[in-house]
Amino acid sequence: MKVIIVGAGIGGTSAGIALQKLGHEVVVYDQMRENKPVGAALSLWSNGVKVLNWLGLADEVAALGGDMADMVYLDGRTGQTMCDFSLAPVTAQTGQKPYPVARADLQALLMQRVGLDNVHLGMKMTRITDDGAQVTVTFADGSTDTGDVLIGADGARSITRAYVQPDGADEIVREYSGYTNFNGLIPVDAGVGRADAWTTYVADGKRAAVMPVAGDRFYFWFDVPQPAGLPYDRADGVAPLREAFAGWAPGVTSLIDAIDPAASLNRVEIWDITPFATWAKGRVAILGDAAHNTAPDIGQGACSALEDAFALGIAFATNTVSVADTLHRYERVRAERAGELVLRARRRGWETHAFDAAVTDAWYDSLRGADGAGIIRGIVGNIVDSPVNLGGGLRLE
Asked: What domains lie within the chain, and their CATH numbers?
């Protein structure tokens, strides 16, 4: 079959590789003009890495991943250590080491594996037509392509998502999560955190963190609770960070000082979408942020998109009644779990960003002197029901 995928992000390209491995012809379209993903890096927890292993990319992904051996929480104001513990139990219980990776590096790898001749950039989809036998996509330049299946991995503002919803369904809208995220890449700096640790400074409902990625770099991110729609000029650079984190610990000041805004600084308002059940109609289905736009508070956004790719591949490998039947089976495998991760991230964001100060203060108290066991349980809990585990394979402790 010919499969058209709209969206060359992590979910779309990984789905493309999965379907190519089954012998299908895959063509990928994206409206971006070059590989400039939103966000500097991402967390690949064990479930996401396992999907990439399944796709035959284990060695390449390990080379891109940072050596994140430990997790450290520091008081944002004083720099005092709240807790410091090993992440080895995550690997032991799930069977796979997690890796933070630079998003552009992973996306470039996936696009190369799909085949750059099969990836067409600068193509904005405007219309979908499904006649029951084939599906046709129309692009802004007036060109079209026709295939047997369309997978819409077209992101948070997905056109495909609206297409697959039932007639008369309420419009699905994005909801502001209450905070803005600043992120980017800097060289590893011991004054900020250890080179093999995920280090997070917390205070006042704000967070400043670094995670190691390949190339002796830190992926950094800051969370600032604030209203949506505040003006920001890229010429402002790190000025909003200096204001929001004034008086914080020396490590945070060193982090801000290390940022080169011209080289790597993104500002992203965080939004999500309340989970919904309909992911497929006829020969068309959605995947990734189009299906489960989530806040990054539990680090499962990219992993959930990779789970979609895994489930889609298994559905096409094992079901033969019809394309529509296969896509609905994929939908039933994914919608509930992906939606639950969106809600977990929403609850986690409420806890960490002082939308209820008492709740966040209680979380801070729980971190002081913690041995990490509770945090490990939470991380593994997000992984345990992944379809890639095939109903087992975890050693829960």
From this structure: 2-65+99-174+274-351 (3.50.50.60)
pLDDT one-digit tens code per residue, 226-267: 999 999 999 999 999 999 999 999 999 999 999 999 999 999
Question: Which element (helix H / strand E) includes 104?
Answer: helix 103-114
Per-residue b/e over 37-52, b at no fewer than 16 CB within 10 Å? bebbbbbbbbbbbbbb
State the alpha helices, DSSP H only, in 212-300: 239-244, 250-258, 289-292
- CA–CA separation, 383 vs 366, rounded Å? 22
Nearest Cα neighbor of 151 from 33, 337, 315 is: 315
Q: Could you tell me the two tokens for 133?
A: 């036998």
Instruction: Work out the end-to-end distance of the chain between its first and last CA atoms, rounded to an integer number of angstroms.
Output: 44
**E strand intervals along 289-382:** none
The residue written with tokens 């939004």 in the block is 271
HSE-up of residue 82 (Cα within 13 Å, Cβ side): 21
For the chain, the farthest-separated pair of C-alpha atoms sits apart, in whole angstroms, at 64
- Look-up of token digits 């939908």: 331
Closest CA to 92 of 378, 339, 332, 395: 395
Is the C-alpha dihedral spanning 50, 56, 60, 63 positive or negative? positive
Specify the pairing of strand 280-281 against strand 266-272: unpaired
Q: Distance between CA 157 and CA 180 in Å, rounded?
A: 18
Q: How many residues are present in the chain? A: 397
Helix (H, G, I), strand (E, B) or coil at 148: coil
CA distance 301 to 273: 12
* Alpha carbons 344 and 291: distance in angstroms, whole number: 16
Read out DSSP for 159-173? Answer: HHHHHHSPTTPPPP-
Q: What is the pLDDT of residues 79-115, one digit of tens each?
A: 999 999 999 999 999 999 999 999 999 999 999 999 9
Residue 70, SS3 per DSSP: strand
Categorise residue 198: left if φ over 0, alpha if ψ from -120 to 50, beta otherwise: beta
Residue 37, helix vs strand vs coil: coil
Determine the Cα angle at 293 with ends 153 and 394, to 5°. Answer: 90
**Percent of the chain scoring above 90 in pLDDT:** 94
Give, as one character, the DSSP assignment of residue 367: H
What global pTM score does this model have? 0.96
> Using an 8 Å Cβ cutoff, are 99 and 61 in contact?
yes
